[in-house]
Design a protein that fits this description.
Elements: H1 4-17, E1 22-31, E2 41-45, E3 50-52, H2 58-68, E4 86-90, H3 94-99, E5 107-114, H4 118-129, E6 134-139, E7 145-149, E8 157-158, E9 162-167, E10 172-176, H5 180-191, E11 195-199, H6 203-206, E12 215-217, H7 221-228, E13 234-238, H8 243-254, E14 260-263, H9 267-281, E15 291-292, H10 304-319, H11 330-340
Parallel strand pairs: 10-11, 10-13, 11-12, 13-14, 14-15
Antiparallel strand pairs: 1-2, 1-5, 2-3, 4-5, 6-7, 6-9, 8-9
Helix pairs in contact: 1-4, 5-10, 7-8
Length: 342
């Protein structure tokens, strides 16, 4: 599965290439609870087709009625999809919040951009597919759009004159090890919009991989990490339990900006790994501070499928900047459980 923003932009481009009227909708502000975060986008065609979302569905239905039904005195749908950018606010009152299925107290403000330029959409999509971060600046008064390169994934900014939304390439995941657990994690990551690559030089494991939509590498894992060039939108997970494959790859990953670097294994295995890295590779507790293990949050998982849920939950929490309570850490939770039940 592609990055959701890219899916929306590609479909919008298809509509505009076909000379269909269309609108790009951006969640500009929220108050209280909201179904979708600030910066989320959806696109709507004059036919009523929608891709992406800004709510649980009720607001999308209202937008379809508002902008794809024939206007008074018109006999063609989509005629309302024209003009300068328009602000719309939903959930101002409790009754309206209930009507549109918004959480209690939720209000959101949208910006609607009518008939975005197809060439600029093409340029934005090409930059994202190259792995660039792109700042899209919309003039709120005229609708004119400019694209700017950026090095930081800034949050959406908006004022009376402009809206600035930063788009980035898909988050990437590099899995070291093509075993069963890797297949479960890869499947979950793909459904969460990650581009997944699996590396395993062991033919007996690599040949048994069945998950589709995953890039494959057969280099030794430390070389693969160098080739892969992890950045701040990348996570690296070592899953083989084999120090010859995992350790050097993890050390290489720790030298990068990867937002998550971790390894599967028991508490004793992970303690032994840290000891090896300190004794034989000149590491320190400080240099290994970013190394996670045992990876995942504690949910009592036993099977590969359950473990993958645990691991993916932790990866997403770190990606989204959500601090996890100490008692959800696998090592801490298991130690506490053993103390409580000696």
């Amino acid at each position: 599965m592609q990055n959701q923003d890219l899916i929306v932009l590609k479909r919008l481009k298809e509509w505009r290439d076909a000379y269909q009227r269309a609108v790009l909708v951006t969640v500009m502000r929220t108050w209280g609870s909201s179904p979708r975060p600030i910066g989320s986008i959806m696109a709507m065609c004059e036919t009523g087709a929608v891709v992406g979302s800004v709510s649980g569905g009720c607001i999308e239905d209202d937008l379809i009625r508002e902008f794809t039904q024939p206007a008074e005195g018109q006999d063609k749908p989509g005629m309302a999809m024209a003009g300068k950018p328009k602000r719309m606010r939903y959930g101002i009152t409790a009754d309206e919040a209930h009507r549109f299925g918004l959480p209690c107290g939720g209000t959101l403000e949208l910006l609607l951009e009518f008939n975005p330029d197809a060439q600029l959409l093409t340029e934005l999509i090409e930059r994202l597919e190259r792995g660039d971060l792109v700042r899209r600046v919309t003039d709120m008064r005229t609708g004119a759009v400019t694209l700017e390169p950026t090095e930081t994934a800034d949050s959406l900014r908006v004022n009376e004159e402009m809206l600035v939304n930063t788009f980035g390439p898909s988050y990437r995941m590099l899995l070291i090890g093509a075993g069963q657990l890797g297949e479960y994690i890869a499947t979950m990551a793909i459904f969460n919009g990650f581009t997944v690559t699996v590396c395993d030089p062991r033919e007996e494991y690599a040949s048994g991989w069945t998950t589709t939509g995953v890039n494959r590498m057969s280099e030794w894992p430390d070389d693969a990490v160098k080739i892969f060039k992890p950045d701040r939108r990348t996570c690296v997970l070592a899953l083989t339990h084999d120090p010859k494959l995992d350790d050097l790859a993890l050390l290489e990953a720790l030298e990068t900006e990867a937002f998550y670097v971790g390894a599967i294994g028991s508490r004793s295995n992970n303690a032994a790994r840290r000891k090896r890295m300190i004794e034989h590779f000149g590491q320190t507790e400080e240099s290994l501070a970013r190394l996670r293990g045992p990876i995942g949050i504690y949910i009592g998982s036993k099977t590969p499928a359950e473990i993958s849920v645990s691991v993916m939950a932790e990866v997403l929490a770190v990606k989204n900047g959500v601090p996890l309570p100490r008692d959800m850490d696998v090592a801490h939770a298991k130690s506490a459980q053993e103390k409580a039940n000696p």
